[in-house]
Here is the input.
Amino acid sequence: MTITIYHNARCSNSRRALELIRASGAEPHVVDYLAEPPTRAVLADLIARAGLGVRDAMRTKEPEYADLGLADPAVGDDALLDAMVAHPTLINRPFVVTPLGVRLCRPGDLVLDILPPKEA
Here is the structure.
């Protein structure tokens, strides 16, 4: 079973999700998305599979959000995705991928909805 977490160790939600994944008995593939940002295609896929809009996957309190004028509703999804890839701090976290789906785990306990049952 492969589980991937797009992780930021400074984020309490991300740390909580990682803790719960490991408590389930799984050792996930941990992607430090700030050091290794997902490609535009991967990011768009994660957002779509999580059932989110692109704006829902953005961190709006980051300085880049204001600096780049991303609050303007005229800024479309393509430009938002480009900004997130160029400035990964704008990607909300943690995204978790399991065989049961993709979820933006805010709060971290939301990961429980997509964790396979613990193997005996």
Notes: The mean pLDDT is 95. The beta strands are 4-7, 29-32, 95-98, 101-104. The radius of gyration is 14 Å. The first helix runs from residue 12 to 23.
